[in-house]
């Protein structure tokens, strides 16, 4: 077995670290625009886009917080503070451990801020040190960066390692109600944000969000099954069999990433050659993969439950066109990449095998998104 730690890389260089965070600031901005284009094309519903936008903002806030934490990496701050660890082989994103540490820091953010000088006081001390000692106030800069980090954590709305399920009512009242449940995880096996959306029918007596027994059980069940290695078919069938009065009609999963960059990741295959040949300037040396899986129920069958009753069980549709529906465990799988103009031009010229069916979203320096 390979050691995952061997795939991790610490960004110990100050300029490289700041370029990395600026890159993701750009990428997360484009993600929202790509989702809007997919909505306009009909491949995403308005509700899906709203949910995605919520989690994309969380990803952006997480990167902003981490950029404050590691703002002075590589500088003599008087303390050993380490560097951001990224998965340089599989994902290009920060490692799962970084998010666990961040969640722990968030629990203690108020206590840290209570014992720190305010922003105005720190800036005043910096000016005094620059004027009186004619020296760069590195340690004060570090103190300010940590204060800003904890303030970001206290502000909330970040993308955490676990984002527990939320539920929205769609339609229906007595007898049969429709709900949309959504949640997200930072998959520790592949170090990528993964977003889930489940639409279901509820035939229980008590509305699911108000059911003190079922709703906590549903939340625990869904979080326990939120593993990228599990097929959607496995997740949906397990849910269907665990809850007799909840009927999963559509399950969708979005994988945000991997991010490839010639400067930061050790990718292999055609993407490596494309990025190397493109020789893009800083800020444009990247490609982000985006994968959407969807499983839909196509019919219902009645099965016996005890001596005198029956329950509904869903029959899920598998992809009839690719011939790999059983292998993928999904009705439909859409793969896309988001990339700047220069890498796209090289990709179009090289036209490597396997990329013909991959959607390409090309972003211009001005932020416009074009779909190919």
Automatic annotation (TrEMBL):
Domain of life according to the entry: Bacteria
Protein name per its UniProtKB record: Uncharacterized protein
Organism of this sequence: Marinovum algicola
